[in-house]
Amino acid sequence: MRTRKLATLLAGTALAATTTLVAGAAPAGAAGPCGSSYSRVGVYAVSKNGTRTGTLEVYYSSSTGKNCALTYGYGQYDGTTSWKHVTISRGDGSGADTDAGNYKYYAGPVYVSAPGQCIDVSATVPAWTILELNNVHCG
After folding, report:
1. Are 106 and 63 in contact (CB under 8 A)?
2. What is the 8-class DSSP label of residue 3?
3. How far is it, in rounded angstroms, from Cα 59 to Cα 89?
4. 137: how many CB neighbours lie within 10 A of its CB?
5. Per-residue CA distances from 125 to 6, 30, 43 (Å)
6. What residue segments make up the domains of the chain, in order of their start?
7. What global pTM score does this model have?
8. Residues 6+ away with beta carbon under 8 Å from 137
9. Phi, psi of 37 (to 5 degrees)
10. d(CA 32, CA 43)
11. Which is deepest, 6, 45, 115, 126, by most CB within 10 Å?
């Protein structure tokens, strides 16, 4: 009985050590899709009639005052070449940056400098499913 408890304890300790090593494997300064100083501030589903086709992600860097956005495919559009589009601009429409095309994984990243302002973002995956967000992430 005591041997079984010891074996269980050792197996649990080994699993915890392995999990710690895997979780800590990424470098401390690993950069996200927009760069190392950016933090994700929003994730939005691109969908039509209840069917999700993509994901819009918005990032912000307090050190640069810039926002960044990307559009990913979802479901049958994830990892398959299809129309993907992303646009970001200041809330007044100025400073727009767009990326669009037939991409396998994502459109973007696109950037806008908008410290202290709201931004507009839009995403399309595929060509007929559009998400538009106006005056969001006001800072």
Report:
1. no
2. H
3. 13
4. 20
5. 54, 28, 15
6. 39-136
7. 0.77
8. 41, 42, 58, 60, 67, 118, 119
9. -90, 5
10. 14
11. 126
Query: For 34, which DSSP code?
Result: S
CA angle 103, 106, 111 (to 5 degrees): 120
How far is 113 from 103, CA to CA, in rounded Å?
25
pLDDT in tens, 68-122: 999 999 999 999 999 999 999 999 999 999 999 999 999 999 999 998 899 999 9
What residue type is 105 in one-letter code? Y
Query: What is the three-class DSSP state of 46?
Result: strand
Per-residue burial over 77-99, b = 16 or more CB atoms within 10 Å of its CB, e = otherwise: bbeeebbbbbbbbbbeeebebeb
CA–CA separation, 67 and 39 (whole Å) = 9
For residue 26, what are its two tokens?
């990424």
Chain-centroid distance of CA 106 in Å reads: 10
Q: Chain-centre distance of CA 31, in angstroms?
A: 12
User: Which residue type, as a one-letter code, is found at position 66?
Assistant: K
